[in-house]
Amino acid sequence: MPGSKVGDSLRMKGPTTNYIRRHDANLGAPVGNFAPTALTPAPPPLPARPPRALGDFSTASVEEVAEAAAQHFSAHVSYKWKTRKGMSDLLQHLAKFPGNTWQERWEASGFNERGRPVGGLAEEGDKLLRNRLNAAAGHAFAMRLIRPDLLSFRSNPLWNYPRWFRDVAKDPWLEEFCARLEKMPVSGARRGKARFDVCCALTVFGIDLSDLTPEALLHYAVESRTHGLAGESRASGTFAATLAWPVLHEMGQFPASAPRTLRAAVTRGQLSVEEVVDRHKLRNQAVRDLLVDYIRRRSADLDYSTLRSLAHHLAKLFWKSIEEINPEQADLRLSEETFTQWKEKLLVLPNGQPRLDVDGALMSVRALYLDLHTWAVAEPERWATWVAPCPVRDADLRWFHLRRRRLQERMANRTRDRQPLLPILSQHVNDTWHQARALLEAAESVTPGEDFTLDGTAWLRVATKEDEKHGRPPVRAVNRLTGKLVRITHEENLAFWQWAVVETLRMAGLRAEELAELSHLSVRQYQRPSGEVVALLVISPSKSDRERVVPMSAELFHVIAQIIRRHRNEHGTVPVCARYDLHEKVWSEELPYLFQTVHSGTQRGMSGTTVWRVIRRACKALAVTNPQFDGVRFAPHDFRRLFATELVNNGLPIHIGAALLGHLDIRTTRGYVAVFDEDVISHYQQFLARRRADRPQEEYRKPTTEEWDDFQEHFDKRRVELGSCGRPYGTPCAHEHACIRCPMLSINPKMLPRLDELEDDLVARRERAVEEGWQGEIEGLDLTLTFLRGKREQTQRYRRSEPIDLGLPHPRPPLTDG
After folding, report:
1. Which are the contacts of 439, defined by CB distance < 8 A and separation ≥ 6?
2. Is the dihedral of CA 131, 136, 139, 144 positive or negative?
3. Of 175, 196, 111, whose CA–CA distance to 147 is shortest?
4. pLDDT (tens digit, 9 = 90+) per residue, 546-584?
5. What are the distances in angstroms from CA 184 to CA 175, 176, 190, 727?
6. Please, what's the b/e burial string for 85-112 (b: 16 or more CB within 10 A of its CB; e: otherwise)?
7. Of 36, 217, 738, 789, which has the most beta carbons under 10 Å away?
8. 502-511 residue pLDDT tens
9. What's residue 794's pLDDT?
10. What pTM does this model have?
């Protein structure tokens, strides 16, 4: 790109290749998790014959160019005069500068730089002249009379530029892109930005759409983000052309080997061992090479997140600090004074707060020294040079178990603090979604422009012209009382996924990554010998690399069924998409993930970060009305600890709880269980006596077939007239079969008519008691009626009007170019 500083700096790198260049400072690529990986950003070569649909005006006179612009861009006589006048003013100014073509004069004028808009030629306050000059610059760009630099182009306000550019280009391939873009399920503003991005890129590069390569669009996206032209801050991870990329990929403009989304093209991915170590900029090259060799050898049995943690401990926390304490340190043989200073520095974070995870760094350093001792025996020529006495002694790890106990105490206290808040959070997300769904259904029952009322509040449904182009336009309404515009479809979608995430974590005890990895294939069923069908949730291997199966309760199955129904209503099936693993820094294979949302017009599986944000949003909304949530942060793992605590404290054997949670060691499950003060006095002595008498050490093992059969038969004995009793395994009925008052009773929706009969009978009995003056009987009947009505309300909440056909997942049909 002659005259383009950014383009020249990139074109000097040579032809486009697939070489991964992550650390080239000249690219201007952002740092952090987003940097070009599979593609190298580079503008395309200039075409031998630049596209000029209106003809070559590069050396034409001012009058010829002005007349051509007036004839093409203006239909009315008055508009023709304005267009002709604006183009004449611009070109007459450019004619004052040297050059044989208008492009050369443009570059010599200084307008081909950022912050030099053409409208600046007008005097302050002359808005009409400024508008004419801005329009003239846009017309000159669209006619390919001038090819501006990216920064120069974006310095001029050109709101109508996509329409001008398309009218001149008459490019069928560009029109195909715009037609496909109109079908994307995004807002009109997002589609307009995608059209602007493509037209801007084609103008800056001087090409037609058929010549736009993934490398060229990636160059445009990276440069726009680097210079703050993507609409948001650089740190936010926002790039330009995020919506245009998948549309071009589906059109076949990009090769099949190119990433399907721009985010996949710019995600940094896994770093090599050298890059992980070099991030900390160690001065001693010999030690740097040693750490690289050591971590590479250890990487065979480490996942990527553990490898990064090891590199952080050894390179940053250990050796980087040693170099700051003693810059002359050349090997691993540390003096007592140096190591003592390092330990003192390790105990404090850079912000002055005490470091909680001290043992991780100490254990990593100790393993480094001891591994070198062992490896030097087998390979002395490679490792013997670095053998030195291990500075981390047993005395340094003396408080390891004490710190572990303190950590468990903090986690137990965290669980106790959040246990009473969990029902409030669950009720909040339920109520929020049901209210949003009721508002959406009420708004969809009327046409735009009509009023409707919900719960005494008057609303007006509104719509825009852009909504008329959609097959399923978004629903918006204005609150007549407050005048606030509510994006009902958007709010209902947020409320649904907030409810789905919180309830699934609460009732299944999953890790955040296990939740994100749930797919349509995870839903299975098992028919017991009694004929009862049990819904199962298959959890993919995660932290413990161990697959497990969780029997679903009716409430959990209701949540999963609602998620599947939502996908089927919107897409006809559960869409197949990919998700990015934030821990391993890799993209997964495409699967029908249950927890997926739309990102830049394409479906993508939820990440762990999204799960965190959903929970944080719910807690923040609750803090407005519930002061106990002020400053409280629920983490996904808090739900897992609360789930484990509820299981074991309600009588489930701990080894079965370990199997449900996927723990390889029962001691891990024991650490998850928080002990509540009120349980200590009433259960401690009973627990010790029962454990010593009835539960020998052999109990802590994998459950036998007989134990599992007994565990399953327990549920057959809990069936009662109104539904099922939820008392813990191995416990008798503690309420003398007063089922209607018992909180353990789960009502079968089919028995709701029977509840009505019982209520009528109780009301009749209460009337008789009032007539006779039986005050004790009245009090008992009122209590029974309260429990009955509460159970009916709870049952109706989960009742479904019709059976849900989950169906079978199947791949999406291949896209066609038509």
Report:
1. 454, 459, 477, 486, 488, 492
2. negative
3. 111
4. 678 888 888 999 999 999 999 999 888 999 988 888 888
5. 15, 13, 10, 50
6. bbbbbbbeebeeeeeeebbbbbbebebb
7. 217
8. 999 999 888 8
9. 81
10. 0.70
Residue 448 backbone class (left: φ over 0; alpha: ψ -120 to 50; beta: rest):
beta
Q: Can you name the residues that pair with 548 across neighbouring β-strands?
A: 539
Q: What are the helix and strand counts (H, E) for the chain?
A: 32, 13
Which token pair is 377?
Answer: 């025996």
Task: Report the sign of the C-alpha dihedral through residues 457, 458, 463, 467, in that order.
Answer: positive
pLDDT average, residue stretch 189-196: 88
Residue 544 CA neighbour count, 13 Å, CB half = 15
Mean pLDDT of the residues in the chain: 82
Whole-number Cα distances in Å, 32 to 236, 266, 642: 11, 11, 34
Residue type for position 658:
A
Sheet containing strand 457-462, edge to edge, reads 451-454, 457-462, 476-479, 485-487
**Contacting residues for 48 by C-beta, under 8 A, at least 6 apart:** none
Q: Residue 552 has which token pair?
A: 């679903």
pLDDT of residue 689: 63
Sign of the torsion formed by the C-alpha atoms of 38, 42, 47 and 53: positive
- pLDDT of 322 > 90? The answer is yes
Q: Which two tokens stand for residue 343?
A: 């330990």
In one-letter notation, the amino acid at residue 248 is L
With contact defined as beta carbons under 8 Å apart, do 134 and 60 qualify?
A: no
Top-confidence range, 191-200, 260-269, 695-704: 191-200
